[in-house]
Amino acid sequence: MINKTVQSLAEAVKDIHDGATVMISGFGEAGSPIELIHALIDQGAKDLTVVSNNTGSGNVGLAALIEQRRVKKMICSFPRTTNSTVFPELYTAGEIELELVPQGTLAERIRAGGAGIPAFYTPASVNTPLAEGKECRLFEGIEYVMEKGIKADFSLVKCELADRYGNLTYHATARNFGPIMCTAAKTSIVQVRKIVEAGAIDPEIVVTPGIFVNHIIEVSHPANESDLVAQKFTYPW
Questions:
Q1: Which spans of this chain does the record mark as coiled coil (predicted)?
Q2: What is the share, in percent, of the chain residues with pLDDT greater than 70?
Q3: Number of domains forming the structure of the chain
Q4: Does 74 map to a domain?
């Protein structure tokens, strides 16, 4: 019987190894897997390359992982956020690397990685520093930059509903990066607000089929990232 449910957050992240590339979903708290990230902090993996839309908020979630010096490189679109100075301070000090990617290009690079597409051309970043060292070509008189697909060893994703097979639905903006990160990772680890009985999710509304999911863990009352940041909450790691 297929059952991708694990019993604890620690079990969910136990195989993430030093030096791994980890995609972390987000686009706001709807998609930020805070509990999985803090389980990863407890687990201790280091020298990680993290692919995410931004670098986290306050001192929780991804920002906490970065603050603990577990991340050697960020691949993201928004390295500076209004409510966190963690990444900018470490980057200025030369303690973390950055690969800056326009948001639409980042999403497409992840989607391409999951679809087995090694590279594609986009007009974004033409004639900017982000195009330096990359192949450029003209198509119908318009210049394009070649961007490579991104794949990862693991993805940490937050979703709304799942069944034991790993079929997923999402809430709000969690759908922006969660589904493509599941397809682009060798191992997809998903925290879900509620695990329902097999067959309870209408196949017509499944967003991520279970074939792209390896482990699911129910977190019925996930932390509210914006509330934690507003309270200036700091996890004890």
A1: none
A2: 94
A3: 1
A4: yes
